[in-house]
Write a structure and sequence with these properties.
With 813 residues, the protein is α/β, with parallel strands linked by helices. Helix content is 39%, strand content 19%. The strands form 6 sheets. The protein has a 6-stranded mixed sheet. It has a 5-stranded parallel sheet with strand order 3-2-4-5-6, with helices on both faces. The protein has a 5-stranded mixed beta barrel with strand order 15-16-17-19-18.
Length: 813
């Protein structure tokens, strides 16, 4: 059984009156106060920002040629293929972002190259292949006569495969948004927004949006060729963007807003007149109309993802999204809906089995949940792991030994696309038999990637990011891996207790619920990472007329998926308000007065406003915590430091400033706790402490150069007999104290002696060749430590502010 949740309500800074009035202009039927509080809390703090956030028509999107030389190289190579009639292959991916990205290139490039003859596409099989390029697929494309591969949503780190394609006389254009390689791969072009600074309006583009930018550039370069307008692709862009859970800011938000508009307009047409009859039929099957982001996140996205999870091969989804053959699209939509029904059933079955296994665990002594089963289908493990992690408040790793001995897990799973981190697959050792394959999901700001990476010696393959990962390992290593990863997290947490947490944004009453509040909160749409759907706290309420039923698929067949419906009431109104609770029975609703956290929604099928219950408990057990968090100001990667910047802000900054880029979460936690301690020593939100994160993206030297610098300094100090402090060394070399210790150990194997004199170090050198092998190993450890430190600094230079706030929220409990 899940532990009792920790509930928190965010302490909102009251926006100024001028801002409330500015928001009210967009919500004439309501006060605008709730939306103003949320927008101000989420960093929208001036009129220009507000207008561009709400009205996409006044937003100025970036040119595709913002990608600079790489985009010019890509267009030149595509124009060469156009002129010489070369055969081109689109290499996609099997999740919703990858499928829609493939579809955008298929439709977009299809305006310039004959589909099925000059232009083909390839999507790996989720159950047989990993994400990214592979040599067997490249061989098949070479046999078909392809001379150019254009990737989408993948390929950035497939250096060996790109070299292999080059050997077969195939050029590669990479369009992707995942981890950048250490050096530019030998490609015709690489278009990846990770090369931009994180504050750039293109930085958060998902795979489908990057593909769209490539097509946009081609439309501009060959303006008289295309038959259909570029805007026809925007509905597909919106589906991929929202389904991939990227941060919807900058051009991402603009493209999603435009795409939802196109999606809604097309759905209103009769089926025979729709540009995308397959999308329209999918919306009909899931009883959506395409006008809400949730129609994608709860409707289209899961259905597209379900195909590869259940069948492995999702190639036909491109035809479903792009064909104008109504009959064929209806057939494919029904196959997709069946796959999703099967996915729901499998997910429910696995979740029940996991819940049963959880009863055999003592969660009070378990920091990381690791469970295995020979019958679990790998395609749904990530989804179930995410559910269990949310319910228990603990990182969860689920492993399947089904088909053990086959190829290991790919680097990332669907949902592991948290941007800006190491999401590539990392092969660790040659393929071996009896492999368990699985997925991991994290909560409570536990850095799952780092946690798993520390046990790399026990793994066959792994990859991911701080909140999600995919991995495979020898079955015989599972007990050792489980013990080691639990011990590691226990040590890093110290006295901190992992607890499932639900956070509310606003406190409302039942009388507040309805059309006016819905339209006011709709100003924030489309919601996503960094701008989540508002969570509403309703206190001292009760439920009436509750009932539940099994959800059925479109053919009327029973699926083991429960939904409870009810009316909610409180003392603010004589009228009840409808709501539902997915995955729960009516008997799980408390009897009598209670508190609940919910989202306000509009049910297109029933044509009514309703709440979607997130969490509920009896009022007697309610213990809400108001978060007295530091107000975090993000000044990273500015031209000047925070102290020099003059803090060009619309509000005064009185608090702490961090200018040194951290190398781990503990460094940042120290500052957050110091800031919280100051906040708690004052009273009232008007004294809320502020914390400015003002470090810049580090300009790293190559690790080998750092090692040579350290050796050179050591030789100089030995020759001159001068003393040096650790601080002087750290400043000169630009590494952390912990990494310097590894470097000093390596120096000793080269014959250097390092002795402490008061607060200084004396270094002498007596060359010794007898320990050459040990020296090589020690230097390799130092270089690895430098690379890891640089990776961490790169992460903290780009990690979204929302993640840092999540850390603050968790550590303030």
């Amino acid at each position: 059984m899940p532990e009792e949740q920790q509930w928190t309500i965010t302490a909102t800074e009251q926006p100024p009156e001028w801002f409330i009035q500015a928001v009210k202009q967009h919500t004439p039927a309501s006060s605008g106060l709730y939306a103003a509080q949320l927008l101000w809390q989420r960093g929208i703090k001036d009129r220009q920002q507000l207008t561009a956030f709400i009205n996409y028509k006044v937003y100025q999107p970036a040119s595709p040629f913002e990608f600079g030389q790489e985009m010019h190289l890509a267009i030149a190579r595509l124009q060469q293929a156009y002129n010489t009639k070369e055969k081109i292959a689109i290499w996609g991916d099997f999740d919703a972002d990858g499928i829609t990205a493939t579809s955008v290139l298929w439709d977009g490039l299809g305006q310039f190259y004959a589909q099925n003859t000059q232009l083909v596409y390839y999507i790996p099989n989720r159950l047989k292949e990993s994400h990214g390029l592979n040599n067997q697929g490249i061989d098949n494309l070479a046999k078909e006569g392809c001379k150019l591969i254009v990737t989408c949503d993948t390929g950035s780190t497939n250096v060996e495969e790109i070299i292999y394609a080059k050997q077969l006389d195939i050029d590669v254009i990479v369009t992707d948004h995942h981890t950048l390689p250490a050096e530019r791969p030998p490609v015709a072009a690489i278009i990846n927004p990770r090369y931009f600074p994180k504050e750039h309006q293109l930085f958060n583009l998902s795979g489908v949006a990057v593909a769209y930018k490539l097509v946009e550039a081609l439309y501009q370069s060959l303006p008289n060729v295309a038959k259909y307008p570029l805007e026809d692709l925007l509905d597909l862009v919106a589906v991929g963007l929202i389904a991939d859970l990227v941060q919807l800011s900058g051009d991402c938000r603009y493209l999603a807003q435009m795409g939802i508009q196109r999606l809604q307009e097309d759905f209103k047409q009769p089926a025979a007149a729709r540009r995308r009859p397959g999308v329209g039929r999918l919306l009909e099957l899931c009883q959506k109309s395409g006008d809400r982001p949730t129609d994608i996140s709860f409707g289209l996205g899961p259905r597209i993802n379900a195909v590869s999870r259940i069948q492995g091969d999702a190639s036909f989804c491109v035809e479903l999204l792009t064909s104008r053959d109504v009959k064929r699209c209806n057939e494919l939509a029904e196959v997709t809906e069946l796959a999703n029904a099967r996915r729901k059933s499998l997910q429910k079955d696995v979740q029940a089995q996991v819940a049963q296994k959880l009863t055999q665990l003592d969660l009070s002594t378990t920091s990381v949940i690791v469970l295995e089963d020979a019958q679990w289908p790998a395609g749904v493990l990530g989804l179930v792991a995410g559910q269990i992690a949310q319910e228990t408040g603990r990182p969860t790793i689920l492993l399947s030994t089904e088909g053990a001995g086959e190829q290991g897990a790919g680097g990332r799973e669907q949902g592991a696309g948290e941007q800006g981190s190491n999401s590539s697959s990392v092969p660790l050792r040659p393929s071996v038999p009896l492999l368990a394959r699985g997925s991991a999901r994290s909560v409570n700001s536990v850095d799952l990637y780092q946690l798993v990476k520390e046990q790399a010696h026990l793994l066959h393959r792994f990859g991911g990011h701080p909140f999600a990962a995919g991995l495979s390992l020898l079955v015989e290593n599972i007990p050792l891996f489980t013990a080691a990863i639990n011990q590691q997290l226990r040590q890093s947490l110290g006295s901190t207790t992992l607890t499932p947490t639900v956070q509310a944004d606003l406190t409302v009453t039942v009388a507040d619920l309805g059309k006016e509040l819905f339209l006011e909160l709709k100003l924030l749409e489309p919601c996503g990472m960094g701008n989540p759907v508002p969570k509403l706290l309703i206190q001292n309420c009760w439920f009436e007329n509750s009932w539940h039923r099994n959800q059925q698929d479109w053919q009327g067949k029973k699926v083991q998926y429960i939904k409870a419906e009810f009316d909610i009431r409180d003392d603010s109104s004589r009228s009840a308000f409808p709501g539902l609770w997915w995955g729960h029975y009516k008997d799980e609703l408390p009897i009598g007065r209670c508190d609940c956290i919910a989202e306000l929604d509009y049910n297109t099928f029933k044509k009514r406003y309703e709440i979607r219950l997130i969490a509920v408990r009896s009022s007697a057990n309610s213990a809400l915590t108001t978060q007295q968090l530091p107000f975090i100001v993000d000044l990273r990667n500015q031209e000047h430091s925070a102290t020099q910047h003059g803090l060009n802000l619309s509000y005064p900054l009185t608090g702490l400033i961090i200018e040194d880029c951290p190398t781990n979460w503990d460094d940042l936690r120290m500052w957050l706790r110091r800031c919280l301690a100051i906040s708690r020593s004052t009273s009232g939100l008007e004294n809320q402490q502020q914390l400015a994160i003002a470090w810049s993206k580090p300009k790293h030297q190559p690790p080998n150069q750092i090692w040579l610098t350290l050796v050179g300094i050591a030789k100089y100090l030995s020759r001159t007999n001068q003393l040096v402090t650790r601080g002087q060394l750290l400043e000169k070399i630009g590494i952390s104290d912990q990494t310097l210790l590894v470097g000093i150990k390596a120096l000793k194997y080269l014959g250097f002696t390092v002795q402490r004199q008061d607060r200084s170090l004396q270094i002498t050198w007596n060359p010794n060749d007898s320990a050459e092998n040990l020296a090589d190993e020690a230097v390799a450890r130092f270089l690895a430590a430098v690379r890891e430190e640089q990776f961490q600094q790169q992460y903290f230079a780009e990690v979204p502010l929302s993640r840092i706030v999540a850390i603050a929220s968790y550590d303030s409990k």
